[in-house]
Structure formats: structure tokens, C-alpha cells
Design goal:
Distance between the termini of chain B: 36 Å
Strand content of chain A: under 5%
Number of helices of chain A: 21
Shape of chain A: globular
Structural class of chain B: mainly alpha
Structural class of chain A: mainly alpha
Order of helices and strands of chain A: HHHHHHHHHHHHHHHHHHHHH
Strand content of chain B: under 5%
Number of domains of chain A: 2
Oligomer: heterodimer
Number of helices of chain B: 22
Largest interface: A-B, 33 and 32 residues
Number of domains of chain B: 1
Order of helices and strands of chain B: HHEEHHHHHHHHHHHHHHHHHHHH
Number of strands of chain A: 0
Largest sheet of chain B: 2 strands, antiparallel
Strand order of the largest sheet of chain B: 1-2
């Protein structure tokens, strides 16, 4: 091991450092100066500082990465990772922007601190090239989220949801740690590139298989894949909409990116095969089971939901199923498809949660029926809802369609001969036809069902701006997917 | 010029939706102008089209769209496309004229209406299969809102059923499209490129039925036709005209352009089975139409029967059969629009009943002579009276079918006879009923037929008569295209 040069490390981690300093600055500013101001003004101050810090972090990401020589056993930088990090910061910022209009908590400094720390954790997840660093980053994110869900104290179910999230999350962290230690035991290394060098294409040892299974369980929890999904509907419903948006968007992107890199880069040699009759052990078959179960349960259970938040939670489970299929695809295209899908999914879901916040704020209900007559009250917002929901359903020319298409194409590219993958793609396409039913139920409320409640209203300008920006993002990335995909594929290849 | 059919429709839709303070009358004018622009563009293209050229696909616009996946923005048209583009233009104009009375949410109505038309134009002129699929799906969602918001009889049920059937069909197409793309080397979606790839027989044997059925669901192939009558009946008149007039043709056109062109061996293997389904559809649709009490259902089921001729003509895989099928698409598009216009707009909107028994007592022939006259013309044209477009189209289909499967041709001929019966039955009951015992009561006067309605009806009658008397207008466009190398493998198995 070469000794680590800390000053170089600081330079390499400039974006993360900037965000940590921002987090502390926000907390200090809020505690020292803003304590006695009105909540709205405290939000404005805190958000301005955060916006400034985030832009600085993005700028330092855009400026390009210094040569990471000497740190590669810890970190991966540049290329697709930079794109993911920018995506993470953008999604967090938009979730924070809607939290300025949410009666979430009066602990405003803490809210920003926790969110920014979670962001730092997510950036580390994207960069981690080492099992230990990955785990610490994962825990930083998880712990911040447990508290963020619980912060919504006016809302009775929040405490229960947070406790359930915490308990199940603790168990999953245990599994992850178990998995990581078994992988360390089997390969004698914790750095990603060294592990992949240890694996030479021979069938995995039982020790490694146990490790992989435990790791799948741990990560399955983070991405809410069936059967580790039980926390999701409660957490989504219990959390304040901005926090729900954060859990559903940025956290998914970071987890899936790390997950994708562990499987397709580090453990590529023990994927196993799902082709024809020669089914051999490996992670491919594990993920396939997870994907199929998530697709079926997520989509079918979503049909029965009456709360929009729970509907989004079950649809998130289904979306995890689609993404898992992409992971099993050809390496470069697979990861590019996963990133594209999650960024665009994140935009749509943040927008949808912003509208949940809007309706919850005015009608006090997150039921789908509360959206009746929505197009009369808020024509523009209603049109944006149409865009978000249709993108989630995968209707072109919106981004959700191209995302799904790209995932499936990547999966099939790795071999049309693989019966397993082909069957999964068929299942996924069939399930997306099922999903249209419950997505249309939401739009039916917004556009078709008459409501006495039709007086035109104006939404808060902040929410309005966020929703419109997200809708523009969904449409633009859907019509011109090459903005994102072109560079990603080049970087990953 | 050709692409402006698509662009103008989407621009028109955007103007209807977003232009501030647009009055209902203004909206109608915008919609009519848009439809006229589309129709004129189509007409100009028909005149500019060089029939003698070796290159049958003309007016090509080509741009890279997503280069990493080989997706191109490739628009063009051959004689078959042009025929259907012309039909779409005609249906758009008349559909707008027969929607002149939409007073509730006018702007949204025409926004959805024009979006649907834009999607339909797009399908007919796309030579990149990905682009074709995008337009195909764009055409799905507006149908839901058109029916669910402005429809009648069980509108929400009819709308949901129609959309789910369409989406299930497009899911099958998507699977076939992905498999085709990967099988051909994952480099291009262009029909002009894919046609050069020799797809192995094993692949064609499963890919053909999957994609063909996917498209044929939208073309009303028995037993997947049930969405059509319920959807058509529930839809508002303008939308029924579009649905029966052009949307069902999307399915037949897609089937011809994609599975039939690319998988000739699959076609040869499955031809008999599909032709059998088509013939069952002809007879079944006609028989069910014979016993309907609801006037609109008679037309709905007659559409299933007439579309059976299209599919039978396609399966004949001979020049005369295929040109008959394309001609029948045009002919049925015009006639179905006309019939739905009479039933939905001229009769139902005035009498508020579609029940044939109730209509019988009203003696509409005397009170709405224009409606009765239009229906008589459309009915005779539909049952295959020489001098109208239906005759020449169905004759060609029958000749084609006779050469390929004689027994099916005989059964289809019986279908025509049943067609005469149900048309006459509906005609006598609806318009020429016996005076009832209450005949002494002066019936309340019905509003006379309005100007837009008359113009629309005259336009459609002109179209069917023109093509009936001088079918070469269209055949000169269609037949050279069928003789192009593109259709060679299809016609010579």
C-alpha cells in the first residue's frame, strides 16, 4: 500500500469538502443569526447558502478532476461518476427547494445539515472504490435519512414510519456488512480493482456466494426490491413530501450506481449464467429473482392504492425491477441506461412529490381523489402532473419511455440467446402495460372526474418553478436523450 | 413539406392548449386551419410524388437522433404512406367540422385531438421503426382523454379498455422491435437498413406473430377486437371518426411496414392462421352488427367486419390483394368517418337516442332528410355498391384472397351479404320507420343540419365517389410502391 497523501486527497474531494463546509455554514448561520426570524426567512437564508455551496460543488466537478493517481484504490473519479454526482446534487437541490414550502419542521438548520450530509454520503457512494468506504458512505446516508423521516413531527405516522425504516435499515446494514466481510474473506482484499483481479472466472466459492447473497439482501433494502421492500410504502407515506422525494430520487441513484459498479465491474466474473439450460450459480440469477418479484408485486399492489404517496412507493418498487434488468445487461450500456433512467425518474418523482405537497397543503390529503378537479384549480401544474405520470408510465416522447427502452435494449444486447433475460424483458414490458392502468387512474382524477372544488388558484412560486423545471427536464431529456446518453456511453466504454 | 403534416398538428395542439385567452370559436378556427394545412401538405406531396422513380420512398428527411443506439429521425413516404396521409388529412378536417359543437373545455378537446392526429401522421411517414413506435404511442394517450372527458355511454370504461388494449398491443410490438434491433446487430432501426438483414427463419417464426398481433390488435383483428365497438360507441363523434377512420389503420399499416416487410418467412408460415382470424372477423362483425339495438354499435361492429377485409387482403400476399387492402383502408376510413358522423352528430346529438327501436318511431327521413341521404350513400358505399370506393377495394381483396385461399374468399363473400342485410336493417329502422300510433302528436322540430356538418359530409362523399369512379387516382400511387424491391420478398415467398 502506498501511503496516502492527505493534501492530494483533499484536492480530489473538493466537491464533497465544499458541501460539508456548506452544511456547517448553514447550521451556524441558522443557529447564530436566523433563530428569531420567521420560518420562511430562515428557509430563504439556509437555501441561499446551500444553493451557493452546491453550485460551487458542481463547478468544481465541472472543472475536471485532478489526476487521481495514488488514490485509485479508494476512489473513482471523473467520467460517468461526475455525471452521477452532478445529478445527485441537482436532485437534492430540487428536493430542498420544495422543502422550503413544507411545514416539515422548525429545526431548519438541522434539516439542511442532514440533507447535505446525506448528499455528501451519496457523493462518496458514487466515488467509492473500496468496500469499507462504500459501507461508511452508505451508513452516513442511511442515518441522515432516518432522522429526516422522523423530523416531520406534526405528522403522527412519521415516528412509526421512521422507526420501522430505522429497524429494517439496521438489519439491512448488518446484512451488507456481513456480505462485505465474506467477500473480503473470499478474496483477501477490500479495494474494488484488487477484488476483481482475484476473481479469475472460476466458479465462486461457497464463501463468496454467501457474501453475494448477503450483499444482495442489504442492497435490496436500499433500492426497495421485493422482498426487502416492506419499509418503502410506510416511509414514503410517513415522510414529508420533500424527504420522500429525496429518498425516492437521489438516494436511489446513488445506491443503484454503487450497486451497478459492485456487480458489473467488481464481481463481473462471478455473474453466473442464465442462458439456455446451463444455469450456473452467480449473482445474475439472484438479481433476476429480485427483479421479477419487484415487477410483479410493485405493479399489482400499486393498483389497489388510494394514497398517491403509497402508489408512488409501489411504483418505485416496480421501477427498481426495471432497473435491475438493465444491470444484468451489457456492461457499458447497462450502466449508462441505469444512470439515464434514474436521473429522469428522479426528475419526475421530485416533481410528483412537489405536487403532492401542493395538494396536501391545500386539501390536507394525499389521497388520489384529492386530485379531482386539479386541472381547474391549477391548469399549469396539472399539465406538469400529466407529464410526470406519463413519463413514469413510459409514454414517449417523455424521458421515462426512452429510459425503459434503453434498459431493455441493454439487457437484450448482452445476448438475445439468454432465455432468462429475454423472459425478464417480456415480463417487464407486460407489467408496464399493467402500470398504465394505475397511472391513468391518477390522471383520471386530475382531468376527468368533476369536482365542486374548481376555483382557480395560484400555487406558491417556488413550487411552481421547481415543478416546471422538472417537467422541462423530463421532456427535454426524453426528446433528446443524447444530451445525457452520448457522453455516458463514451465515458463508460 | 411532408414533415409539416406532423409539425403543424403538434404546433396547432400547442396553440390550442397554451395560447392565452383563446375563445372556443378561435380554438375551432385554429384546429380547422391546422387540419387544412396538414391536408394541403399531403395533397401537394401526392402531386409531387414521382411515380416512375426507382426510389419509391421519397421526401426523405434524415437526421441522427440517438447515434449511440442507431436511432435516426427518418421521415419519408411511398405511395402507401401517401394514401394514408391523405386519408388522415381528410379525417382531420371532417373530424374538426363534426366537433364544431364542442362547448365544454374546447381548447383541451382540440389540443388532444390535434396531438392524436400528429401522432397518426407521424406513424404513416416514419421509416425508422423506433420513431414509428414513438408516434404510435403518442397516438394512444389522447384517445383516453377524448373519450373519458367528452364521451357518452360508459365512457370511462370504454376509454380505459381501449387504451389498455392499445397499450398491450404496443407492448407486443415493443418486444418484437427490441428483438429485431438486437438480432440485426443493434446498429439501426431504419426499415431501409433492416430490410437488408437476413433474419433467420427460427427468429421470424416467433417474431412475426408477436409483432403482427401487436399491430393487429389496433386493426381490430378478431378476437382482439372488443375494444373497438365499446371505444367507438363511447367516444364523441369527432373522436369516433378518427378512431374508426384512421387509428385502426395504424395497426394495419404498422403490420404491413414492419412484420410483413421484414419477416417474409414468418408471414408465409402464419398466413393461413391469420387469414382465418380475419375471415372470422368479417363474418362475426357483420353478424353481431345485424342484431344490435344501438345504432352506434351497428357501425362499431361493421368496422370490425370491414377491417377484416383489410387483414384478409394483406394475408393474400399478392399485388392485387395488398393494393385492395390499402384501398380498403382508405375507403373504410372515409366511410366509417361518414357513418359515425351521421349517427353520432346528426342523429344522436338531435334526438338524444341511439336506440334503433326508438328511432324507428321518429321517421327521421322526413325530419332530417340530409342525414338520411348521407347515410344511404354511406351505407350503399359500405356494402360494396359499384361506383363507390368500397366496391373496388373489396373486389380486389376478394380476387387476391381467391387466388390464395379460395374457401376463405367464399366465406368473406357471405360476409358481404350479411353486410348488405345489417346496413339495410339499420337504414330502414333509423330513417324509414313506420309511423307509430302517436304519429298525430306533432313531434318537436329538430334543429336542421348545420353548415359545418354539410361541408364535412359532402367532402367525405366526394372522396368515396371519386375513388369509386376513378380508383386509379390512388392505385397509381399504391401499385408502383408495391412493386418496389422492399415488398419483393413478401410477394414472392
Amino acid at each position: 500500500m502506498t501511503p496516502v497523501d492527505y493534501s492530494r486527497l483533499l484536492l480530489l474531494l473538493a466537491p464533497e469538502m465544499i458541501l460539508v463546509i456548506t452544511a456547517l455554514a448553514v447550521l451556524a448561520a441558522d443557529l447564530i443569526w436566523a433563530r428569531d426570524l420567521k420560518d420562511r426567512n430562515r428557509h430563504t437564508i439556509a437555501f441561499s447558502i446551500t444553493l451557493f455551496g452546491s453550485l460551487a460543488a458542481v463547478a468544481s466537478l465541472m472543472m475536471g478532476t485532478p489526476d487521481p493517481a495514488g488514490a485509485t484504490q479508494w476512489l473513482t473519479l471523473g467520467g460517468a461518476t461526475t455525471t452521477v454526482k452532478i445529478g445527485l446534487i441537482a436532485l437534492t437541490l430540487s428536493a430542498l427547494a420544495i422543502s422550503t414550502r413544507s411545514p416539515l419542521t422548525s429545526h431548519i438548520g438541522e434539516l439542511y445539515l442532514l440533507t447535505l450530509l446525506a448528499t455528501v454520503g451519496m457523493l462518496f457512494m458514487a466515488s467509492a472504490n473500496h468496500l469499507l468506504l462504500a459501507f461508511i458512505a452508505l451508513e452516513l446516508v442511511s442515518l441522515s435519512f432516518y432522522i429526516l423521516v422522523a423530523l416531520y413531527r406534526h405528522h403522527k405516522p412519521a415516528a412509526e414510519g421512521a422507526l420501522r425504516y430505522f429497524l429494517l435499515g439496521g438489519v439491512s446494514a448488518g446484512f451488507t456488512l456481513f456480505g462485505l466481510s465474506f467477500i473480503y474473506g473470499a478474496t483477501g482484499s477490500m479495494a474494488f480493482d484488487q477484488i476483481s483481479q482475484q476473481l479469475d472466472g472460476s466458479p465462486p466459492s461457497p464463501l463468496l456466494i454467501v457474501g453475494m447473497v448477503a450483499l444482495v439482501i442489504g442492497f435490496g433494502f436500499k433500492i426497495a426490491a421485493v422482498p426487502m421492500h416492506l419499509w418503502a410504502p410506510d416511509a414514503y407515506q410517513a415522510a414529508a413530501p420533500p424527504v420522500g422525494a429525496l429518498i425516492a430520487s437521489a438516494s436511489k441513484l446513488a445506491s443503484f450506481y454503487l450497486f451497478a459498479r459492485i456487480w458489473t465491474v467488481v464481481l463481473a466474473d462471478v455473474a453466473g449464467r442464465g442462458a439456455d439450460s446451463s444455469l450456473s450459480a452467480g449473482w445474475l440469477i439472484l438479481l433476476a429473482i429480485l427483479a421479477a418479484a419487484s415487477l410483479i408485486l410493485g405493479n399489482v399492489a400499486a393498483i389497489a392504492q388510494t394514497s398517491l404517496k403509497r402508489l408512488l412507493a409501489y411504483s418505485a418498487i416496480a421501477h427498481a425491477g426495471y432497473i435491475l434488468i438493465g444491470l444484468m445487461g451489457e456492461q457499458a450500456d447497462g450502466i449508462a441506461a441505469v444512470i439515464y433512467y434514474l436521473v429522469t425518474y428522479g426528475l419526475a418523482i421530485v416533481g410528483a412529490f412537489a405536487l403532492v405537497l401542493l395538494v396536501e397543503g391545500s386539501d390536507g390529503s394525499d389521497q388520489i381523489t384529492a386530485f379531482a378537479g386539479f386541472h381547474r384549480r391549477y391548469p399549469l401544474e396539472s399539465f406538469c402532473l400529466l407529464i410526470f405520470i406519463l413519463s413514469l408510465a413510459g409514454i414517449p416522447p417523455l424521458a421515462g419511455f426512452f429510459g425503459k427502452f434503453y434498459l431493455f435494449a441493454a439487457a437484450l444486447k448482452s445476448g438475445l440467446a439468454s432465455n432468462l433475460l429475454f423472459a425478464l424483458v417480456v415480463l417487464a414490458v407486460a407489467m408496464s402495460a399493467v402500470s398504465l392502468y394505475y397511472y391513468l387512474k391518477v390522471l383520471k382524477q386530475a382531468y376527468v372526474v368533476p369536482s365542486p372544488n374548481t376555483a382557480r388558484r395560484r400555487s406558491d412560486p417556488v413550487l411552481r418553478v421547481v415543478v416546471i423545471l422538472m417537467a422541462i427536464g423530463v421532456v427535454a431529456l426524453g426528446c433528446f436523450p443524447d444530451i445525457l446518453v452520448g457522453d455516458l456511453v463514451a465515458d463508460l466504454k | 413539406m411532408l414533415s409539416w403534416t406532423v409539425y403543424s398538428s403538434f404546433i396547432g395542439a400547442a396553440v390550442c392548449a397554451l395560447w392565452p385567452n383563446l375563445s372556443p370559436t378561435g380554438t375551432r378556427r385554429v384546429a380547422l386551419t391546422t387540419a387544412l394545412i396538414g391536408f394541403l401538405a399531403a395533397l401537394v406531396c401526392c402531386f409531387q410524388y414521382d411515380v416512375d422513380s426507382e426510389q419509391t420512398v421519397q421526401f426523405i428527411t434524415e437526421k441522427a437522433w440517438v447515434p449511440s443506439l442507431g436511432i435516426g429521425y427518418l421521415l419519408g413516404a411511398d405511395g402507401i404512406s401517401l394514401t394514408l396521409v391523405l386519408l388522415t388529412g381528410l379525417a382531420a378536417i371532417t373530424g374538426t367540422l363534426f366537433s364544431w359543437n364542442i362547448e365544454t373545455r374546447t381548447r383541451e378537446f382540440f389540443a388532444f385531438f390535434l396531438t392524436l392526429i400528429g401522432g397518426v401522421y407521424g406513424v404513416f411517414i416514419s421509416f425508422d421503426l423506433f420513431l414509428l413506435f414513438v408516434f404510435y404511442e403518442i397516438a394512444i394517450i389522447p384517445k383516453y382523454f377524448l373519450i373519458a372527458i367528452w364521451g357518452s355511454t360508459r365512457r370511462e370504461y370504454g376509454a380505459m379498455k381501449l387504451v389498455l388494449y392499445s397499450f398491450a398491443g404496443s407492448a407486443l410490438v415493443l418486444i418484437g422491435l427490441l428483438a429485431t434491433f438486437v438480432e440485426a446487430g443493434a446498429t439501426s432501426f431504419s426499415v431501409l437498413e433492416l430490410i437488408k438483414h437476413p433474419f433467420p427463419r427460427d427468429f421470424q417464426l416467433w417474431a412475426f406473430p408477436v409483432t403482427f398481433i401487436g399491430f393487429a390488435i389496433l386493426a381490430g383483428l378478431w378476437p382482439f377486437h372488443t375494444w373497438a365497438p365499446t371505444g367507438h360507441v363511447a367516444a364523441p363523434t369527432g373522436a369516433s371518426m378518427l378512431l374508426a377512420g384512421v387509428v385502426m389503420k395504424l395497426g394495419a399499416y404498422g403490420a404491413l411496414r414492419f412484420p410483413m416487410t421484414l419477416f417474409p418467412m414468418g408471414l408465409a408460415a402464419w398466413r393461413d392462421e391469420i387469414a382465418l382470424l380475419a375471415v372470422i372477423g368479417i363474418v362475426y362483425g357483420a353478424t353481431v352488427a345485424l342484431v344490435q339495438r344501438d345504432f352506434k354499435f351497428v357501425i362499431g361492429y361493421s368496422s370490425v367486419s370491414h377491417m377484416g377485409f383489410v387483414l384478409l387482403g394483406l394475408m393474400a400476399t399478392s399485388e392485387v390483394g395488398l393494393s385492395g387492402a390499402v384501398l380498403q383502408m382508405f375507403s373504410h376510413g372515409v366511410l366509417a368517418s361518414l357513418l359515425f358522423a351521421v349517427v353520432g352528430r346528426m342523429v344522436y346529438a338531435r334526438t338524444h337516442t341511439k336506440d334503433l327501436t326508438e328511432l324507428e318511431a321518429m321517421q327521421l327521413a322526413r325530419r332530417l332528410p340530409f342525414a338520411a341521404g348521407t347515410f344511404v350513400v354511406a351505407g350503399f358505399a359500405g356494402m360494396g355498391m359499384p361506383g363507390f370506393s368500397g366496391f373496388i377495394a373489396e373486389l380486389q381483396v376478394l380476387i387476391g384472397a381467391w387466388n390464395t385461399f379460395p374457401s376463405f374468399a367464399v366465406v368473406a363473400g357471405i360476409g358481404i351479404i350479411i353486410g348488405v342485410t345489417y346496413t339495410l336493417r339499420a337504414m330502414t329502422k333509423a330513417f324509414f320507420g313506420e309511423a307509430s300510433e302517436f304519429a298525430d302528436d306533432p313531434a318537436p322540430p329538430l334543429t336542421s343540419i348545420t353548415g359545418p356538418e354539410k361541408i364535412g359530409a359532402v367532402l367525405l362523399i366526394t372522396a368515396t365517389t371519386l375513388v369509386g369512379l376513378y380508383p386509379r387516382i390512388l392505385l397509381d400511387l399504391i401499385v408502383p410502391s408495391l412493386n418496389s424491391p422492399m415488398f419483393k420478398p413478401l410477394l414472392e415467398p
